[in-house]
Amino acid sequence: MTAMRSNPPKIFISYAWESDDHTKWVVRLAEDLQGAGAYVLLDRWDVGLGGDLPRFMETAVRRADHILLVCTPAYAKKANERSGGVGYENVVITGEIFQRFTAAEGRVIPVLRSGSWDESRPTWTKAMMAADLRDEGKYAEGLEAILRHVHAEPAFVRPPLGAKPSFAARAAPSDGGPSLAALKFVNQGWADSEVELGNQLRVTFSLPAVKRIGADLEHISEKKMAMAVIAEPLCPGLSNVVATIHTAARQVVATCAQVEVGADIAVARGAAERLKEALDAFRQMHANAVLGRGNKETPLPP
């Protein structure tokens, strides 16, 4: 059995005297709340013959932790027109809320008993979340929602705040900029020489042609070395690869010259193959950089 709270929440029920059936429903609601650990302030229980009803209303509004409004079209009409007991209670309630505005959040609980949301709630409550007890089949669900609220036992609880995750550092995306322009510059101008070198290695190895290709690539790579350094943020290691191409191209020219004076042609072929490997490394590095940026630039062809 759940232990009784030493300081149970106090609920004042404000309602319109409309009919015996309506009053019986209000008393039933009060009994259900009282039976579930909420102390209910109700005129039927707390004001006897000769009792001062206005004084009870004023005192109950001040004492209550929560004020439950049983909303019907008749209740809204009296509240908005400030007529009868309901009108007086709403004057007291709104005045109390104004006096204790910082503590008023969630204190007033509109409960829809009949009619539509628009026609049954007083104008000043229409922005408030409300409980819907119009459908008898959903009475238990609405009652639980009220009890959870007054007992501060919400059905939905915010989970604990977790720790901030660790994030890996990422390079800032480029919308162009010097690095991208440099990468494009480095990529241009030697595709034809690379294709021609590949053909020489696969089909026929012409010493003059290979020497010319080597000289062309030596010249091209030398012009691109400074730009390769600028492109490093987008393509780390690019300057080393371009330097390797430059060195390999010089070796091709030198070995071809050696073959011309009697050295084995295999020396020149070996140098040409190393140059092709350096070009392949550049092509792969460039393709990875382009893929990583989602860029539409076309990598060097195989």
Run of helices and strands? EHEHHEHHEHEHHHHHH
The count of β-strands is 5
Question: CATH class of the largest domain, please?
Answer: Alpha Beta
Q: Superfamily at the CATH H level of the largest domain?
A: Toll/interleukin-1 receptor homology (TIR) domain
Oligomer: single chain
CATH architecture type of the largest domain: 3-Layer(aba) Sandwich
Question: How many independent structural domains?
Answer: 2
Largest sheet: 5 strands, parallel
Uncertain parts: 294-302
Helix content: 55-70%
Q: Beta-sheet strand percentage?
A: 5-15%
How large is the count of helical segments?
12
Mean pLDDT across every amino acid position: 82
Shape: rod-shaped
Intertermini distance: 80 Å
Structural class: alpha/beta
What radius of gyration results from the CA coordinates? 43 Å
Strand order of the largest sheet: 2-1-3-4-5
CATH topology assignment of the largest domain: Rossmann fold
Short account of what is shown:
The protein has 302 residues and is an alpha/beta fold. Helices cover 57% and strands 7% of the residues. A five-stranded parallel β-sheet has the order 2-1-3-4-5, with helices on both faces.
Identify the notable features of this structure and list them briefly:
five-stranded parallel beta sheet, 2 domains, alpha/beta, 302 residues, 12 helices, Four Helix Bundle (Hemerythrin (Met), subunit A), Rossmann fold
Structure report:
- The chain has 302 residues and is an alpha/beta fold.
- It folds into 2 domains: 10-150, Rossmann fold, CATH 3.40.50.10140; 177-293, Four Helix Bundle (Hemerythrin (Met), subunit A) (Up-down Bundle), CATH 1.20.120.
- It is 57% helix and 7% strand.
- It has helices at residues 20-35, 43-46, 53-63, 73-81, 84-99, 117-120, 139-150, 177-187, 191-202, 207-230, 238-260, 265-293; strands spanning 10-14, 39-41, 66-71, 108-112, 131-132.
- A 5-stranded parallel β-sheet has the order 2-1-3-4-5, with helices on both faces.
- β4 (108-112), α6 (117-120) and β5 (131-132) form a beta-alpha-beta unit.
- The chain is rod-shaped, with a radius of gyration of 43 Å.
- The two termini are 80 Å apart.
- Mean pLDDT is 82; it is low at 294-302.
